[in-house]
Design goal:
Structural class: alpha+beta
Helix content: 10-25%
Number of strands: 25
Strand content: 25-35%
Radius of gyration: 24 Å
Distance between the termini: 45 Å
Largest sheet: 7 strands, antiparallel
């Protein structure tokens, strides 16, 4: 089906009288056709945005595709506050879409990131016409996976996102003063050009002065966090759901958690590839995961969008999720292959403790001698972000050689012996540290790496936990590194890093009680207890 007609800026009235606008992509012919809706704050006509949606392809697959600017963005009326109006606006849009000429009355939703979360917001209100959703590469909890992670501010995501969103805000704010508009746009562009330098370095971070300077909406706003968090009625969502995630996506755990919650209620499918948030390609950082890992040829059988549209079409025409495969499909990094699974997490994965040793060893068997290791953490010289599950303008996400990080004095490194056989880690990785600092607060960062025979050390997963503590007193610090699937090959080694910063991905802990408000900082002396019964360890789910 090649013919597609497009109707631009179609008005969509909301229950409070505000008019949103949408572009409607229709297959040629009388129909009736199922309808799918995507609601975006990023401009429904932007070519970059449309590559992730491809409504023309959707129409060619026999779907009426609606792409709408959310409230207060671009062609739509009203005031934009992240997430706050998305539930009711989404429900109203769904009922409107069901009545479109040529519509079959069955409506689905699709889209990633913000466009994924708004699907949960709308579905939680249970609009009668909604029959399926495809919320991919999106989060679940705003305070642990969107605005914050383990108590630390997602500086790289939050500050960069707010500034990027600011241009449409300035256009609206200064619509009657072109001279002031050009001045403000130039200043905002300079701030974005200052990433990752002065823009990320500016303190304090508790109020984010860079965002406040332009009075922009931001992800850490209390109203936005409350609205964007797990929707209060999400447990009532019983329509089928498709979840696509990437091992190097900043929202990988949120997408997986959304799937596991949905799978308990209704038909759901999870697909996880070796992708980041922006690029679903086989090349992630320094590592090429191959053609089979590319989002356009998943397992040499389909693309992400092809899978999405075919799955939605089946749901909207039959009323239930297709049952043509096992519900979970994951790409096993290192092995370079896709594998279908009946569940997540895998029941056959065995959680195995690896102890950290005073001599830098990492071992699953025996008990290392007890001892302590120390390092100094200076927030004026933080450990740099080198890849990872991020979404920042710079530095890029993905898997990169970590030796530049591991050579630092403020990074502790623990490594296994050379593996004599393959070891697959598939599931959620955690760390339990027995640690102390000489200040009232600090951060602990743990990273899992795959060390190649030539010494290159590539990041797999990591996590952070911000603690408040009694100076000098050791306590247990739990660090959630989130989920992965990695085959550590025979001849490789498994490595764990422990440090206290990863900047600018996460804001620096200034090691002072009031540093978030004042910017006051101090150098911290860090102590890690290893070995013995109270020593630190990581837990790897080994298949």
């Amino acid at each position: 089906m090649a013919g597609v007609t497009i109707e631009y800026d179609v008005p969509v009235p909301m229950r409070d009288g505000v008019v949103l606008r949408a572009d409607v992509y229709r297959p040629e012919g009388p129909g009736p056709w199922p309808v799918i809706v995507s609601r975006t704050p990023y401009d429904k006509t932007d070519n970059y945005e449309l590559q992730f949606l491809d409504p023309v392809l959707a129409a060619r697959r026999g779907l009426i595709a609606v792409v709408q600017d959310v409230r207060g963005r671009f062609a739509s009326e009203g005031e934009f506050v992240p997430f706050v109006n998305e539930a009711t606006d989404g429900a109203d849009t769904i009922e409107w879409a069901a009545q479109l000429p040529g519509s079959s009355g069955a409506v689905g939703m699709w889209g990633i990131s913000y466009l994924g979360n708004v699907q949960w917001q709308a579905a939680g209100l249970q609009p009668a016409a909604l029959k399926a959703i495809a919320p991919s590469l999106t989060f679940r909890e705003t305070d642990n996976g969107l605005a914050f992670r383990g108590g630390a501010y997602e500086l790289g995501l939050g500050r960069g996102w707010a500034l990027g969103m600011g241009f449409d805000v300035l256009v609206r704010r200064h619509a009657d003063n072109e001279e002031e508009l050009m001045k403000q746009v130039a200043a905002l562009a300079a701030a974005l050009d200052g990433i990752p330098g002065p823009t990320y370095h500016e303190l304090p971070t508790g109020t984010d002065p860079v965002v406040a300077r332009w009075d922009l909406a931001h992800l850490a706003d209390r109203a936005s966090m409350a609205a964007g968090d797990v929707p209060p009625h999400q447990e009532n969502v019983t329509v089928p759901s498709l979840h696509v995630a990437g091992w190097y996506d900043v929202f990988v755990q949120g997408t997986i958690d959304n799937y596991t919650a949905a799978a308990q209620r209704t038909g759901a499918k999870l697909v996880v590839g070796p992708w980041n948030h922006i690029a679903q390609t086989g090349m992630q950082g320094d590592i090429n995961f191959g053609i089979a890992g590319h989002g356009s040829v998943i397992d040499f059988s389909t693309s992400i969008l092809g899978l999405t549209f075919d799955w939605l079409h089946a749901c909207l025409t039959t009323g239930e999720a297709p049952n043509d495969d096992l519900p979970v499909k994951i790409y096993v990094m290192g092995a370079g292959e896709w594998r279908s699974e009946p569940e997540w997490p895998l029941s056959r994965a065995v959680d195995t403790r690896f102890q950290l040793g005073t001599d830098g060893t990492l071992a699953a068997d025996g008990e290392a001698a007890p001892g302590t290791l120390t390092f100094t953490y200076d927030p004026q010289n933080p450990v740099p972000t080198v890849g990872g599950a991020t979404v920042m303008p710079y530095p890029p996400s993905g898997s990169f050689d970590q030796r530049v990080v591991e050579e630092r004095d403020d990074v502790l490194v623990f490594t296994t012996d050379v593996l004599t056989e393959d070891v697959e880690v598939t599931g959620r990785v955690t760390a339990s540290l027995t640690a102390a600092t000489d200040g009232p607060t600090t951060d602990w960062v743990v990273r899992l790496c795959d060390v190649h025979p030539d010494g290159r050390s590539y990041n797999v997963v990591d996590g952070i936990t911000r603690v408040e503590t009694i100076p000098g007193e050791a306590s247990t610090v739990e660090v959630d590194l989130w989920s992965t699937s990695m085959l550590f090959k025979r001849g490789h080694r498994i490595r764990v890093q422990v440090t206290s910063s990863c900047f600018p991905r996460w804001d620096r802990n200034l090691n002072t009680a009031d540093g978030l408000r004042t910017g006051e900082m101090r150098v911290a002396s860090q102590t890690l207890h290893v070995g013995g019964e109270a020593g630190s360890f990581v837990t790897l789910p080994i298949v």
